[in-house]
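S2.1 Query sequence (ABC transporter ATP-binding protein)
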Amino acid sequence: MSETLVQTVHLTRRYGSQAVVDGLNLKVKRGEVYGFLGPNGAGKTTTIRMLLGLIRPTSGEIEMFGQPLEKNRKQILRRVGALVESPSYYGHLTGRENLEVTRRLLGVPKQRIDEVLERVRLRQAADKKVKQYSLGMKQRLGIALALLGEPDLLILDEPTNGLDPAGIQEIREFIVELPRRQDVSVLVSSHLLSEVEQMASQVGIIRQGKLIFQGPITELRKQSLPRVRFGVGDPVEAQRALREQGWQVSREEGDLWIEGLNREATSRVVESLVMDRFSVYRVEEVKPTLEEIFLGLTGKGESL
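Output structure tokens follow.
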């Protein structure tokens, strides 16, 4: 059974009467990329700041590596690397010099600089000034800074924000490799499901401070049943006839739709339509995309 690296119990943060994070129960295990997903303003960054000890919870508990964060803050946070919002660096210094500043603060061996430069594929650009780096290179430097202390857990808050498609692909591939090649587990937040589904093995979805889903990506797909579309000759009358037989039928753009039918039920609907002399020219099962499931869970009015 995988070790639990992060566990929160009813984690809550209030500002006045508003609960920005409300009773959150997260569980992140070793060896996984955990996608922490939700619309902008859902409470992701506030949660991450609590996990990093930057702000205190109003109530609830945080355990990391099996120990309470409140009592073992310094010991725990030595094992955590983080990139929250934009990476901090000195543009007039080289990548290597930026890493040297942080290395001295952490007190880690000098050889760690070359190791993390290799990990984030910045060896060739190590002696260029950071102000000459692309956005993707700057993000990788931020991750290198987070990796200097040899963390067991890396927490990344919206690491692909502001990147072009090539930079997004670059960061995504790097994150996916971390648990497998470097034994670093990752919690990565995003408001984009399309990003998370290409990186994460587990996902937690937060909306208005509440966790509304947590589990494998494969489980997320099961949250919404497929719909069956029927193309028929007289949809208005066909809908009326099927409703009289007890079927829950909707009509959209001239087609009839029924949710959650298995093969046997679908064949019964077709048989009924044919027996009532309606022509049936199309039967199609339509499975929702992950994006559609996400919109359904978070509320279609939320910003993505």
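Residues 165-182 form the longest helix (18 residues). The chain is about 35% helix and 30% strand.
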